[in-house]
Amino acid sequence: MSYLNSFVRCISTKRLYKPKRKAADIEADEEGFDEDHLFYKANVVITGKLSHFTRAEALQKIADIGGIPQDSVTKTTNFLIIGQTDFRVVGEEGISSKQKKAMKNKENGQEIEILSEDDFMELI
Questions:
Q1: Which of 36, 39, 100, 106 is spaced 20 to 30 A from 9 at the CA atom?
Q2: Are 83 and 46 in contact (CB under 8 A)?
Q3: N-terminal to C-terminal alpha carbon distance within the chain
């Protein structure tokens, strides 16, 4: 969807449009890299709403450790962090499309770890 289409859609729904910050837009502070950290050089994705940080803040923390923030689950994803899910978005089963894809990739042999937000907080 183009920016203009998003803007028009937001006017029609009377919601303010705030462009989402993409993982590719995040610049790491390389001075803080921790080569011993679990997330160092790991591809990390977040799904759901986090309680302690915005998604952009959490992805920034990951990048500053030396991790690689991603917006979507791919075959290169190493970690998926799961926040609170909105049942209006994910449906009654409460599983996001990112989580479904991560579980499928894991079943197919991909080494991907699925972490709760609490697990993430302990690691940061």
A1: 100
A2: yes
A3: 34
Looking at domain 21-123, does it have CATH number 1.10.10.10? no
Under 8 Å CB-to-CB from 53, ≥6 apart: which residues?
A: 61
Question: Which phi-psi region, left, alpha or beta, contains residue 11 (left: φ > 0; alpha: ψ -120 to 50)?
Answer: alpha
Per-residue pLDDT of the chain (124 residues; tens, 9 = 90+): 555 555 555 555 555 555 567 888 888 888 889 999 999 999 999 999 999 999 999 999 999 999 999 999 999 999 999 998 777 776 777 789 999 999 999 999 999 999 999 999 999 8
Which of 74, 84, 81 minimizes the C-alpha distance to 104? Answer: 74
Q: What is the DSSP string of the chain?
A: --HHHHHHHHHHHT----PPPPGGG----GGG--TTSTTTT-EEEEESB-SSS-HHHHHHHHHHHT-EEESS--TT--EEEE-B--HHHH-TT---HHHHHHHHHHHTT---EEEEHHHHHHH-
